[in-house]
Each structure stands twice: as C-alpha cells, then as structure tokens.
Design goal:
Shape: globular
Radius of gyration: 20 Å
GO biological process, one term: lipid catabolic process
Distance between the termini: 26 Å
Protein name: GDSL esterase/lipase 7-like
Signal peptide: 1-24
GO molecular function: hydrolase activity, acting on ester bonds
Number of helices: 15
Strand content: 5-15%
Family: Belongs to the 'GDSL' lipolytic enzyme family.
Structural class: alpha/beta
Length: 386
C-alpha cells in the first residue's frame, strides 16, 4: 500500500512571486505553436522564474478533450479539418482551431501536451509527465440514456477517474519507493473543466423534468465533492477547478433560443450561476478537511464576462459568431468537414458555435496563470510553484 508523503500547510500567497493582470499585459495573438518555454515565459512577461512541475493531469469535457473521443463509439468527434487548422494543420480531436488552455499551461511549465488517456501507447509513454482524460460531452454525472442513444458513449468523470487510477498502478512502478511516487502525485497539477454538459445538454434533453434547478445543482456539487475526494485518496493534492462559462452567450444558444430582450439566454446563465456559486464553499470545505490539499478555483465565467464587456482589449472583434462554417450555415452544428473557416480566427471568441478559439483559450490560460481576480485564493502560477 502506498502512503502519501507529508505536505506543507498552504503557504500564503505573499510568499510566492506575485503577478497581476493589467491592460498593458494584453497580448492580441497566441504565441507560435513551436515556441519554447523560455520564449513563452518572456512572451507572457513572467521574467526569470523557476518552474518545477513534474506532471499535468487533465479531467473534463470538450473544452479540454485532446482526442479521447476518437477512440470511443460516439459521433461526437472533432478529428477533421477545419478543427486543428492551427495545430500544425492536424486535427487531433480538439474542438478548436489550435491549442487549448491546458496545452498552453503545458508549454508554460515545460511539459509535453498531455496525451489522450485512450491513446494507450502515448498515455503510457507520457504517464510520468501527465495524461489527459477529458471527453467531449462528458459530465459530472453519466450522460442520460437519451444522450447515449443520440450520440453514443463518452467518458463521465467517474470513468475518467477510473482511468487515472489505472494510470497510477502503472506509474508507481516507475518510482523506487512509495514516498517518491506519492511526492510525484502531490507535486503534480490536476486541472478540471466539467459541469457544462450537465447544465446544458443533459439538462435540456432529460434532467429538467426530474429536478428543480436548485436541487440539480446540489446533486452536481455532491457528486463533484465525492469525485475530488476520491482523487485525494489516490494521492492528488493540487486541484485547479474551473467553474462553468456563460453558455447562454455562445452562438448556438443565441440562435436556438432567440432571446428577444437580452443578448444572451439568461435562463441558462442563471442556472449556471446557481451552480457556480456553490463551488467556492465546496473547495474551501475540502481544503479545510483534506490535509495537505490545495484547491484553487478558476473563474471562467468572469473571464468570459470581461471579454464580452471589452472585446477590443483582448484583441477580439467578434464575440457573437463562430469562425467555422457549419453544415446548415446557421451556427447550430459543429464545423462542416473540410470547409475553410474564417481568416481572422484570432479575432473570434468562438471557433465553432460552442467552443472557444485558440486565442480565447490563450486569454483564459494567461489570466488563470497571472490574475488572482479570476483564480483564487491564489493564481495558477502560484499553485504550480507551491
């Protein structure tokens, strides 16, 4: 049996090198795909800092899926162009034109992009530097039967955690003793982006008939709590947990719901805000009851709000329409295969009707890394350095 090594108490933020986000920090284009770590740190104005992160493990949905759905019996795949047009021209299964937020984080910390867990050879080869378990359309809860019937099977959080448990069984053989293995897990970063499908697709197709919005949010919080505790029991200590973005403002929602008096679908956003409000007390409670744990909230909702309020400040000219062309040309479907997307991809918040462009992913990554107003109680870089 493996026991985790002792962890220092949560060091106060002032002991870390502190970085703030200001208008002068805004970069209007993502860095080159092949940029090295040193150049990227300079690009982000992070100076001469030392980063020693052994691994990056990722859980979630299409926001972070690097291609796990390519290996599943599901129609929900993004393994064709124009997806990946800026990922060295190779569609990988990412639901954007280039890199995702976790790809940028990996580049910042000097690690390989965490490979899909279901790409067995790559996941095993890279297990010591990180693996990505994200699955497009996955949720905190298993997908409802209607969703399974329509789209096939995707990985829920419980399934992703089970895959991670298998990873740890293989991984511990690479360490000399239990202490060094436990230290590896305790020092690694675990990134979570989940809940959007539960509050969107799952709710719309089935769950709304069985729950009130309040009771459903509580169910999700209770399930998420158990899942995070399960990972803690497996040795995880550094948790970075995103809340859910304002999906009522994505192109698909606006086209389908056609709000008449507001710019976004406020009923959907209200449901999301109700859930998001319950995440901070959950993370605070977990950190206070799980010795040595560090839980940091990524306020994705606020980042989107800030971008929508002042798009030009972030280099965007279009916050309402997707960049790629969908089959019906009405922003109600994923990108049509092999159809050229818009030229000004960096200026669009959304690449397809549901998902952010590479530049929006970059905005999110750099704000998480440097800005404690959207990453609390400390920013992501401070969590990494802890």
């Amino acid at each position: 049996m493996y026991f985790s090594c002792s962890i220092c108490v949560f060091i106060i933020p002032s002991l870390f090198q502190s970085f703030t986000f200001s208008s002068g920090d805004v970069l209007v284009t993502p860095p080159p795909f092949t940029i090295n770590q040193t150049a990227l740190l300079q690009y982000l104005s992070l100076g001469n800092i030392t980063i020693d992160l052994p691994a990056l493990y990722v859980f979630g949905d299409s926001f972070v899926d690097p291609g796990n759905n390519n290996f599943l019996n599901t129609s929900i795949k993004s393994n064709y162009t124009p997806y990946g047009i800026d990922f060295e021209g190779m569609p990988s299964g990412r639901t954007t034109n280039g890199r995702t937020v976790v790809d940028f984080i990996a580049q910042v910390v000097g690690l390989p992009f965490p490979p899909p867990a279901l790409d067995v050879s790559e996941a095993k080869k890279n297990s010591r530097t990180g693996v990505n378990y994200g699955s497009a359309s996955g949720g905190i809860l298993p997908s409802p039967p209607l969703v399974e019937n329509l789209f096939g099977h995707v990985l829920s959080m419980d399934e992703q955690i089970a895959f991670f448990e298998n990873t740890t069984k293989d991984l511990k053989c690479q360490f000399n003793n239990a202490e060094s293995f436990a230290q590896h897990l305790s020092k690694s970063l675990f990134f979570f982006h989940v809940g959007g499908n539960d509050l969107g697709l799952y709710w719309d197709l089935e769950r709304h008939s069985n729950y009130s919005a309040q009771k459903y949010s509580q169910l999700l919080i209770d399930e998420l709590s158990m899942q995070l505790q399960k990972l803690y029991e497996l040795g995880v200590r550094k948790f970075f947990v995103n809340n859910v973005s304002p999906m009522g403002c994505q192109p698909y929602s606006i086209v389908v719901e056609k709000p008449k008096t507001t710019q976004c679908v406020e009923e959907m956003n209200a449901r999301i805000v109700n859930f998001n409000k319950q995440i901070p007390p959950l993370l605070s409670h977990l950190q206070s009851t799980l010795p040595g744990s560090k839980f940091v909230l990524g306020d994705l909702y606020k980042i989107y709000e800030d971008v929508f309020a002042s798009p030009a400040s972030y280099g965007f000219t279009n916050v309402k329409k997707s960049c790629c062309i969908d089959p019906f040309r009405n922003q109600t479907r994923p990108c049509a295969p092999n159809v050229e997307p818009c030229k000004e991809r960096n200026q669009h918040v959304f690449f397809d009707p549901y998902h952010p462009s590479e530049n929006m992913h970059f905005v999110i990554a750099r704000r998480f890394l440097k800005d404690s107003s959207v990453s609390s109680p400390i920013n992501l870089l401070q969590l990494i350095q802890s």
